[in-house]
Specification:
This protein is an alpha/beta fold. The chain is about 20% helix and about 30% strand. It has helices at about 140-150, 255-270, 290-300, 315-325, 330-340, 340-350, 380-385, 410-420; strands spanning about 5, 25, 35, 40-50, 55-65, 75-80, 90-95, 100-110, 120-125, 160, 170-180, 185-195, 200-205, 225-230, 275-285, 305-310, 365-370, 390-395. It has a 10-stranded mixed sheet, sandwiched between helices. A 5-stranded mixed sheet has the order 3-9-8-5-6, with no helix packed on it. Strands 2-4-7 form a 3-stranded antiparallel sheet, with no helix packed on it.
Length: about 425
């Protein structure tokens, strides 16, 4: 197994000199909020107080992420440090923490309420040692084999519609609609080179409910790109349909993601049918739900040669509900309406938990995550990542939340990584 680390440095943001009676708190620029060895974890905090500010103390509360949705949060430790005049920094020794992610709550005691700053952020400790065991049902493999076998009996019958305003002399853009598992329609946006030949081909999987993004035809003239729309999403999305994860919860046969995961594989079938696709240079990308789909694509199908998921969704459902509210609480609400027992729900979701697929991956994987992600929290990202035995590495944007698609450094790192396979 090949594992490496790329970390983006960041700062909380430099503050201006404080007013006479105010206090500001910042984390030093050089700190990465990631602890990768077994040494004692230390956190430095910069504090600036105006000359008329009262005597104050800085308080740190450290909470385990798996307790954030609990009525009684698991506070690992509480530390306080007195602020000394002329010494604007304090250091907290967090000790030797167990692998995982933690929420840091920094507050100031003693300052007037209107001036007392408060900081909340996440730190990570040896994330590759996080243990979130797989819980595959006995018929997991046969269930997916039969699902894909059923889909193989459905002809794709693709229908292409050229989009002239999104085409130029280098590449032509089409919308595509085709049949998938159960006879349902999926599709996407296809951009192919005009010049005959075999080209590297990228399959891009969309985030949950995301609107389609059109390719710039002149941006990558030597590349085939296909932006996938699974059933009822992307170019197929309707205004009255905006939730998918709570559909068909009563059984594994009816759950929405059975069809959606099948669509992920059908997208590979489709691009492999194109004369412009070089099957030895076939790649998968995606963020959030698209990150989950990218991992599913290389778990269920081994034609893809390299995969770069970001902030992958649909990992570790039970722990997911312990860290953040959405979307699992929508699922719980629907279960209450349908009279579905919560334990029965979690038993069904084992068939669709990304961590139960990723040990099947054979190609290299480059995963990114935002350390401050409150939508697809890092713990759940690593639940699937840590099951991968193929070559892998990860990239962290410590200051970022869920929006990895807006992180230019991640896009640059991903593009550089793919060069090795093109």
């Amino acid at each position: 197994m090949i594992t490496s680390l790329i970390v983006a440095l960041f700062a909380m943001g430099a503050s201006a000199a404080p007013a006479a009676d105010t206090v500001t708190v910042d984390v030093p620029v050089e700190h990465q909020w990631l602890y990768l060895d077994r040494k004692s974890c230390r956190l430095g905090v910069n504090v600036e107080a105006g000359e008329n500010a009262p005597d104050i103390r800085v308080r740190l509360d450290l909470v385990t992420d798996l307790s954030l949705m609990s009525e009684s949060r698991d506070t690992v430790l509480t530390l306080t440090r007195n602020l000394r005049r002329g010494r604007p920094s304090v250091k907290f020794n967090l000790g030797r923490l167990d692998p995982g992610f933690y929420q840091v709550n920094l507050s100031v005691e003693g300052a007037p309420a209107r001036y007392a700053p408060f900081r909340v952020f996440n730190i990570g400790v040896r994330p590759e040692e996080i243990v979130s065991p797989q819980d595959k049902p006995e018929d997991f493999d046969s269930f997916w084999q039969s699902t894909l076998a059923e889909m193989a009996q459905v002809p794709m019958d693709p229908v292409l519609t050229k989009i002239p305003e999104r085409s130029d002399s280098l590449r032509t853009t089409y919308t595509v609609k085709m049949k998938s598992w159960g006879g349902e329609i999926m599709g996407g946006i296809l951009c192919v080179p005009v010049k005959p030949g075999k080209y590297p081909t990228y399959i891009d999987y969309l985030g949950y409910g995301a609107n389609p993004i059109w390719y710039e035809p002149s941006a990558a003239p030597e590349r085939v790109e296909f932006l996938v729309s699974v059933r009822d999403q992307g170019i197929l999305k309707r205004k009255d349909h905006y939730r998918w994860i709570d559909r068909g919860l009563s059984s594994k046969e009816t759950f929405y993601y059975r069809g959606a995961f099948a669509d992920v594989v059908r997208a590979i079938d489709y691009v492999c049918s194109l004369e412009q696709t070089d099957p030895e240079r076939l790649f998968a990308r995606g963020e959030s739900q698209g990150g989950a789909f990218a991992l599913i694509s290389v778990s269920l199908d081994h034609r893809i040669k390299a995969c770069a998921p970001a902030v992958p969704f649909l990992n570790d459902y039970r722990d997911y509900s312990r860290i953040v509210r959405w979307p699992m609480w929508e699922v719980f609400d629907q279960c209450r309406k349908e009279g579905i027992d919560r334990e029965d729900l979690f038993r069904m979701l084992r068939y669709f938990d990304v961590k139960n697929f990723t040990d099947r991956i054979q190609c290299p994987v480059f995963m990114s995550f935002g350390l401050q992600d409150a939508t697809c929290p890092p713990h759940t990202n690593f639940a699937g990542y840590n099951m991968i035995t193929a070559p892998k590495q990860w990239y962290c944007s410590p200051k970022a939340g869920h929006g990895q698609w807006a992180e230019k450094d991640w896009h640059a790192a991903r593009a550089e990584w793919f060069k090795a396979f093109e």
